[in-house]
Specification:
Number of strands: 5
Structural class: alpha/beta
Number of helices: 9
Order of helices and strands: HHHHHEHEHEHEHE
Largest sheet: 5 strands, parallel
Helix content: 40-55%
Length: 247
């Protein structure tokens, strides 16, 4: 793809993923182009509503998108998540104040609650016994809770059972919960590289569990996406959660 630095630029640059391309007979057919333009318009209007903290307009945009057969969870993953990333980038560049970033986060929380209310029965399959159970947690010190909430909804939409665990739990309580509930996966989300040492401690503690109750540990988040971390003993690094295979 001839990618060049900066490699940690995750802004939207492509509109069609490989799997979608393979499923379309003609990605440049008029109706496919019209659909792409419609989704792009939804994204930009929703972003603009967020910048103006106009939740009523955002609610109408979400309802229109759902009426046009957009899955509610895809609005979160494909639209709201990139918005949150871009807002974080603006804050990092000094183009946005902390106050404005917090206001956009509060707006996003309202959108998440709205979409949660619309998902309804779509998450019902995750309650079936025997389906994959995942523990989802922020790395200790990571206070960005919206990402794990959005990810939990997306995973439930794929048929998994998900429990969000407090990232500040001491190791003994976390291990007790793992031993009692036996999750198949422990997913840990990092925000900054400085949280690595605490994640290594969690992974080390989990390795002490008997093999039959030890979950597979997967670590993701910005430091992983940006290639700032090469490895964590006892864990798999995953830069793209969509490739996670849930049995």
């Amino acid at each position: 793809m001839q990618e060049i630095a900066p490699y940690d630029d995750f802004s939207i640059s492509h509109g069609l993923c490989t799997s979608c391309d393979a499923s379309l007979k003609d990605p440049f057919a008029n109706h496919e182009i019209e659909r792409s333009l419609f989704l792009s318009g939804v994204f930009h209007r929703l972003f603009d509503a967020g910048r103006h903290e106009d939740f009523n307009t955002a609610a109408r945009i979400v309802e229109r998108a759902i009426a046009a057969n957009c899955r509610p969870v895809d609005i979160l993953i494909g639209m709201l998540s990139p918005m949150l990333y871009e807002i974080g980038e603006e804050w990092k560049r000094g183009a946005l104040s902390v106050e404005a970033e917090h206001r956009f986060t509060a707006f996003s929380e309202r959108v998440v609650r709205l979409v949660e209310s619309r998902i309804g029965a779509a998450a019902a399959p995750s309650s079936r016994p025997g389906t994959t159970l995942l523990f989802l947690m922020n790395a200790p010190g990571n206070r960005h809770r919206l990402a794990v909430r959005i990810l939990a909804l997306w995973l439930k939409g794929r048929g998994a059972r998900v429990r969000i665990v407090d990232g500040d739990l001491d190791h003994a309580r976390l291990l007790h919960s793992i031993a009692a509930e036996r999750p198949d996966y422990l997913l840990i989300s990092m925000a900054v590289i400085e949280q690595r040492d605490r994640v290594v401690e969690i992974c080390g503690a989990a390795q002490a569990l008997p093999q039959d109750v030890r979950p597979k540990i997967v670590v993701g988040g910005y430091p992983v996406k940006a290639g700032l971390i090469e490895s964590i003993p006892g864990a798999e690094l995953l830069s793209d959660i969509t490739v996670l295979q849930i049995a």
